[in-house]
């Protein structure tokens, strides 16, 4: 398989498959494909049966996954980002990665998608859905999308970084993390930064994303019918 990421602000992943090669993606994520590509959408794609499908849904993915297969001749399939941001390739391991929900784009080989972490953090965060991380693991290569600009932080052993939950992009599944409350009553009530922070502990690499859905939704809400600015 050959891949190419085209664009900057709203990039597109273009994958050229050789006959017999398979690419696995979430249902409904296709942007375009050539005529030699055949697709099969089911809950069984990706393995795990119905239980695996429910684990995917809990992690912010879809119950249905789609297999794209090149038949008889090479073919191309493409996936565009949902928001301004970046598409990143990942070499999967058995331990895998934790990433922001809806971050999975597609993968080759044997991949498992499930909920890596879920906790309700109050009605103000993510529309009441709480803090959810997807987990992707297995063997092969995966492509994920993160929103906005990316900042990479390399944490040393024992070094801690406190991150607003919406800015958490991606980190290794073996990296310790916890949910902490912001200290101080005045900070909680009037600080405007929410109540919770994600505590990430090194060693390991963390990718932080600059664009967050709560802030984007808040800005767009001013322009919806019936709203005043």
Notes on the structure:
- With 229 residues, the chain is mainly beta.
- It has a single domain, classed as Mitochondrial biogenesis AIM24 (Double-stranded beta-helix, 4-Layer Sandwich), CATH 3.60.160.
- It is built from 3 helices and 18 strands.
- It has helices at residues 49-58, 185-190, 213-221; strands at 2-6, 12-17, 22-26, 32-33, 37-42, 65-70, 75-80, 85-92, 97-100, 104-107, 110-119, 131-147, 150-155, 160-163, 168-172, 177-181, 196-201, 204-209.
- The longest helix is centred in the N-terminal third of the chain and has 10 residues, at 49-58.
- The model is unreliable at 123-129 and 184-193 (pLDDT under 50).
Radius of gyration, whole Å: 19 Å
Main sheet characteristics: 11 strands, antiparallel
Overall mean pLDDT score? 82
Spell the H/E element sequence. EEEEEHEEEEEEEEEEEHEEH
| Span between termini | 49 Å
CATH class: Alpha Beta
Under CATH, the topology is which?
Answer: Double-stranded beta-helix
Quickly count the helices: 3
Brief sketch in words of this structure:
The protein is mainly beta and 229 residues long.
List the helices and strands and how they pair.
Blueprint: E1 2-6, E2 12-17, E3 22-26, E4 32-33, E5 37-42, H1 49-58, E6 65-70, E7 75-80, E8 85-92, E9 97-100, E10 104-107, E11 110-119, E12 131-147, E13 150-155, E14 160-163, E15 168-172, E16 177-181, H2 185-190, E17 196-201, E18 204-209, H3 213-221
Antiparallel strand pairs: 1-2, 2-7, 3-6, 3-10, 4-7, 5-6, 8-12, 9-12, 9-15, 10-12, 11-12, 13-18, 14-17, 15-18, 16-17
